[in-house]
Design brief:
The chain has about 200 residues and is α+β, with helices and mostly antiparallel strands. About 50% of the residues lie in helices and about 20% in strands. It has helices at about 1-25, 50-70, 75-105, 160-170, 175-180, 180-190, and strands at about 40, 105-110, 115, 120-125, 130-135, 140-145, 150-155. A hairpin with a 4-residue loop joins strand 3 and strand 4 (about 120-125).
C-alpha cells in the first residue's frame, strides 16, 4: 500500500515540476542577443531542451524499472528483458537527442547566411535561397522554406527573435516578403521588441 502512495506522490511531483521548470526556462528568454562578429545566435533558453529530455526519459525509465522489478510468469521471463531493453533504449535515444539539442542546437543569422545546427546535422544557406516565408500564428513560429524544400523553423521562444526579425526583413528577397504579408507583420512586431 505504501509503495502505491509513494508512486502517486512521485507522479504528482513530476506533473507539477515539469510545467514549473518549463515556465522558469521561458522567463529567461531574451528577445535580443545582439550580434557577435556580425552573427546573431538564436537558441532556446538554457535548460529548455534539458527539461524536455528529462521528461522524455522518465516514462521509458519507469516502464523499464517496472519490467525488471515485477515477477514474470515462469517461462515468460525473457519478456522482462525484451520490454526493459526496448523502453530503456527508447528513453535513452529520445532524451539523448534532446540533451544533444541543449548542447548543439542553434540558428545562426548574419547579413550573408543562415545556418541551422542540429544534433547530427548542419545546414547552411543564403538569404536568397529562401523561396517562401510562412508564419504559424497559433504557435508563433516562422518557417523559412528553401528552394531545396528544406525548412528552417524559428520559434517565438528562441533567444534573439528580434535580431532574427530585423535580419529577415532586411535580407529576404522582396518577392518572398510580398507573398506573405501576415509573416511580415509578425516580423515587424518582433523587430520592434527592444531589450536583452
Amino acid at each position: 500500500m505504501s509503495k502505491i502512495v509513494v508512486g502517486f506522490v512521485m507522479v504528482g511531483l513530476v506533473m507539477v515540476a515539469i510545467p514549473v521548470a518549463l515556465a522558469w526556462s521561458g522567463t529567461h528568454r531574451r528577445p535580443r542577443v545582439g550580434r557577435v562578429n556580425g552573427v546573431a545566435e538564436l537558441r532556446m533558453p538554457r535548460g529548455h531542451w534539458f527539461i524536455l529530455g528529462v521528461l522524455a526519459f522518465l516514462p521509458g525509465a519507469a516502464i523499464t524499472g517496472l519490467a525488471v522489478a515485477v515477477e514474470w510468469a515462469p517461462g515468460a521471463e525473457v519478456g522482462r528483458w525484451i520490454l526493459a531493453g526496448f523502453f530503456g533504449l527508447a528513453a535513452v535515444a529520445a532524451s539523448g537527442y534532446l540533451f544533444g539539442l541543449e548542447a548543439r542546437g542553434r540558428l545562426l543569422f548574419s547579413d550573408a547566411a543562415i545556418e541551422r545546427h542540429g544534433v547530427f546535422t548542419r545546414l547552411t544557406a543564403r538569404w536568397s535561397d529562401v523561396a517562401k516565408l510562412s508564419f504559424n500564428p497559433a504557435n508563433n513560429w516562422f518557417f523559412l522554406t528553401l528552394a531545396s524544400g528544406q525548412r528552417i523553423y524559428v520559434t517565438e521562444g528562441s533567444n534573439g527573435l528580434g535580431d532574427f526579425a530585423e535580419l529577415a526583413l532586411a535580407h529576404l528577397p522582396r518577392p518572398v516578403l510580398e507573398a506573405s504579408p501576415e509573416a511580415v507583420e509578425a516580423l515587424e512586431d518582433a523587430a520592434s521588441i527592444q531589450g536583452r
